[in-house]
Fold:
Amino acid sequence: MCKGLERSQSGGGPAKRGKAVLDQAHDHKASAEATQARRFGRARIARAAALLEDYTELIADLLAEDGEARPTDIARRLGVSHVTVVKAITRLKREGLVTARPYRGIFLTPEGQALAARVRRRHRLVVDLLVAVGVPQEDAETDAEGIEHHVSPTTLQAFAAFLTRQA
Structure:
C-alpha cells in the first residue's frame, strides 16, 4: 500500500484534513446563517413593535396637547384611514396599552404611558445624534421616525455616549 493511502486510512492524512476544512466551512456557513436569521428576526420584531410605539407616542402627544385622543385625530395625523386606526386601537387594547371609552376617546394605560415615554426618549436621542452629525433638523425628525424602531439598546448607549463627548 502506498504511504499517502496508509496515512489517510489511519486518520492523519489529507482525507482527514480535507474533512476538517469542510466541517469548518460548514460550521462557518451555519454560524453566518444563524447570525443573519437573528438579525432579520430582530428587524421583523422591530417592524411589528413600530406600529404600537408610533400609536402610543401619538396618543400621548394628543392627550398632552388637546386633553383627548380621538380615532379621527389619530387617522389625520398618521395619514391613514379611520378603519386602520380602529384596528390598531383594538391591538393596543389587547396589548394592555390603551383603554377606549365610547364618545370619550382613547387613553393610555400606565404601561402605554411608560412605552410612550421610552419611545419619546429614544426618538429624541436619535434626532439629537443625526443633528450632531450634520443632518438638518427637519430631515433628522423624519429619518428618526424609521431609525428609532430598529436601534438596539447597545447602539442607543453608544449614541448617548457620543453626544455626551460632543457636549
About this structure: Residues 127 and 140 are 5 Å apart (CA to CA). The domain at 49-108 is CATH 1.10.10.10 (Arc Repressor Mutant, subunit A). The first strand starts at residue 98 and ends at 101. Residues 1-10 have pLDDT under 50 and may be disordered.
